[in-house]
Description:
Blueprint: E1 3-9, H1 13-24, E2 31-37, H2 43-50, E3 55-59, H3 64-78, E4 83-87, E5 91-93, H4 97-107, E6 111-120, H5 128-134, H6 139-145, H7 154-158, E7 160-161, E8 169-173, H8 174-180, H9 192-202, E9 206-217, H10 226-242, H11 248-268, H12 272-287, H13 289-301
Parallel strand pairs: 1-2, 1-4, 2-3, 6-9
Antiparallel strand pairs: 4-8, 5-9, 7-9
Helix pairs in contact: 10-11, 10-12, 11-12
Amino acid sequence: xxxxxxxxxxxxxxxxxxxxxxxxxxxxxxxxxxxxxxxxxxxxxxxxxxxxxxxxxxxxxxxxxxxxxxxxxxxxxxxxxxxxxxxxxxxxxxxxxxxxxxxxxxxxxxxxxxxxxxxxxxxxxxxxxxxxxxxxxxxxxxxxxxxxxxxxxxxxxxxxxxxxxxxxxxxxxxxxxxxxxxxxxxxxxxxxxxxxxxxxxxxxxxxxxxxxxxxxxxxxxxxxxxxxxxxxxxxxxxxxxxxxxxxxxxxxxxxxxxxxxxxxxxxxxxxxxxxxxxxxxxxxxxxxxxxxxxxxxxxxxxxxxxxxxxx
Length: 311
């Protein structure tokens, strides 16, 4: 399979050798594209010097995660690639990951997104977010999940369906991109993957991960501040508002009214800051209603690759 690996970078130096080094060790060869979002460190210079085989696109501004990935997806479509593999800059994979995911993609075309099992940067335990999505407590439970549900079924033990998985490691066939398009510009950084999986489900595809291969995601040491929590709440409510699997009235309830409800709950708990923050989030989303409606319409009725990949 002709595969394009897309990495969006911003101040990539810290993880560069582990990330790009893991791709050099992959048993399945693939082309690597880095779209740099105007890094302020020596990312660009180091890639040019130490990884000349990597194709580099330098943006003069920080485009955010979705728009930068869309550049790579568009190249994959124009240059005849069969699939893309989106890889976070703070992540790396084992040597069997790409080959296994490509094999599974060919065997299971109903899965529009495939991912390895997500481990922490240390590689010794499940990454917290992944564990929550997958409903697993630890690696021991993961091993149990590899037991085939049907005798003799190797595919069952290699692929597990999952409602959502973040975009740290996503294999997407180009046939899926041609139907769904790229990431929605409504989301700048965070939330793009939630919205994309909503659209994936709308088109009848599933997402899944393989318990047989792994990727490490170095995110366990990030400080979760209250500010970061409210930012994640804003993104979550926006994704619900834009969710095309809901009729608009229900999306309004899960987006705007849910924010107001959270404000009321904070008020009852005498959390005035939380109350005001949720009210601001709800008002902010309300102010974006026309924009949300326009993107909902485009996502519902847009024609495949015309959605965000031909602009």
